[in-house]
Structure formats: C-alpha cells, structure tokens
Amino acid sequence: MAFDYDKYIRPGKLPHIWCPGCGHGIVMKGLIRAIDSLQLDTKNTAIVSGIGCASRLPGYMDCCTLHTAHGRAAAFATGVKMAKPEMNVILVGGDGDGTAIGGNHFIHACRRNIDMTYIILNNKIYGMTGGQFSPATPTGAKASTTPYGNPDPPFDIAKLAIGAGATFVARGTAYHATQIDKLIAEAIQHKGFSVVEILDDCPTTYGRRNKFKSVIEMMNHLKETSVPVKAAEKMTAEQLQGKVLTGVLYKEEKPEYTTEYAKVIERAQAK
C-alpha cells in the first residue's frame, strides 16, 4: 500500500515552486515520513523557516508553521520552544539562510542545546535570491557573485554544529532518500539541539554554472562523494579524500535548555 503523503499537505498549496530536479521535495517527503513514523501530533508540531527555496517547505505542510525573516528561523523557533516547551519544534532552511545570514542564531541555538531539530538543506548556493555563493559553496565553484570561481573555503556545517555545541548531528543526501526520514526521526527523538544536514542539488543556479549536464549527474555526484560512517571506518585517509561522511556523526546527552531555564524560574520564584 502506497504511503499517503496527502494527509500532511496543506490543502490548496500544491503545486510547489521548486524547479524540476530540485531535491527539496525529496527532503519534504522524508520529513513527512519521519513525522508519521513518530506519530507526532501535527497540532503540537511547529515547523519554522526563514527565507529561501528550502524555507518554502513549511508552507506546504499541514502543521503549525512559521515562515519568518531571512536567517531568523532559529530565533523565532527558540521563542516557540520557550513559550511552549511541550511542542515539537522543527526548523527547515538552506545553507545560506542557516549559516550566513542566520549563522549567529544557529551557533547560539547549538550552544544552548535547546530541544529542537534543524534540517539544513545544503545545495551549496543561494537559490531563490539570485544564485550568490554561500558559506557552503566549494572553493573554485561558480556563482552569480563569483563568476570566476569562489576564493573562499566552505564551512563543514556538521563540524560547525558540533563545535558550537549541538548534541546530535547527522548528514544525509537527497540521493539516499530512504535514509532521510530515519535520520530526521532519530534527531527529533533526541533531547537537545539536533542538526540534520541534507546534501541537496540545485540544478538551476548551481548546476548550470558549474557544468553539470543533468540532474542525474548531480544526483550521481552526491552518491559518489558520500560515504556512510561505518564504511568510512574501514577506509584509508587516501580513500576518504574528497568524500563526505553520512549517517549519525555525533551524539551525546547534555542538560536541555528549556528544562534548565525552568529551574532558574523556580529559583527566582522561591525568593
């Protein structure tokens, strides 16, 4: 029996705005399957985003949704979680929205270890706003603002999240579609700030400028350059050159922010 995605889609919002071949729809379906597998109450689940192609995702989903200012998803989501700690709070955004314009909010959400899940759709470019390079654009890659090649080194978003204090960090790809829901579900279940980076493709503003001949070629590139964590343990440094690890990259248990903040309130009220 086919999975029923329709019950999680807001009536009247399709078709979506994403370009043919964009991987964002694959990620949205993975998120829907994760929510369904955990039997989350959509009326008690907030999906929050900023601005950009990836940030359009919450508008299609029949949950409690916030489409906020550019780069400010983590700030708005923190407000939701602080006001209603019992809610499931999920953030969705792109690499530019999350780690450039929203970079400050991102690292401090990681540092606080507030119980939210941030899904970052990393397609290595600003898509909606004109194809500018982002903090995740590879060195040498072309964008509208780096037509002769990007001189900057890119962020490793997963390492950035770990270094900033996130207590659950995972990475998947749009090619490995059936893994996405499992990573997101595990992230949601984790008590603390979780980051799931999904390596994605943008055929329109990244693929064309960087000489990818087709969406299939871009998807195969995701497949060929990614290695599961367990497989990587058996590979040499030379074999891992140019590869990115996928799966659960980091997990630890630490005090969660809303729980600790509630203790501060109790101490204050006891005075």
TrEMBL record:
<dbReference type="Pfam" id="PF02775">
    <property type="entry name" value="TPP_enzyme_C"/>
</dbReference>
<feature type="domain" description="Thiamine pyrophosphate enzyme TPP-binding">
    <location>
        <begin position="51"/>
        <end position="198"/>
    </location>
</feature>
<dbReference type="GO" id="GO:0045333">
    <property type="term" value="P:cellular respiration"/>
</dbReference>
<dbReference type="GO" id="GO:0030976">
    <property type="term" value="F:thiamine pyrophosphate binding"/>
</dbReference>
<protein>
    <submittedName>
        <fullName>2-oxoacid:ferredoxin oxidoreductase subunit beta</fullName>
    </submittedName>
</protein>
<keyword id="KW-0560">Oxidoreductase</keyword>
<dbReference type="InterPro" id="IPR011766">
    <property type="entry name" value="TPP_enzyme_TPP-bd"/>
</dbReference>
<dbReference type="GO" id="GO:0044281">
    <property type="term" value="P:small molecule metabolic process"/>
</dbReference>
<dbReference type="InterPro" id="IPR051457">
    <property type="entry name" value="2-oxoacid:Fd_oxidoreductase"/>
</dbReference>
<dbReference type="GO" id="GO:0016625">
    <property type="term" value="F:oxidoreductase activity, acting on the aldehyde or oxo group of donors, iron-sulfur protein as acceptor"/>
</dbReference>
<dbReference type="InterPro" id="IPR029061">
    <property type="entry name" value="THDP-binding"/>
</dbReference>
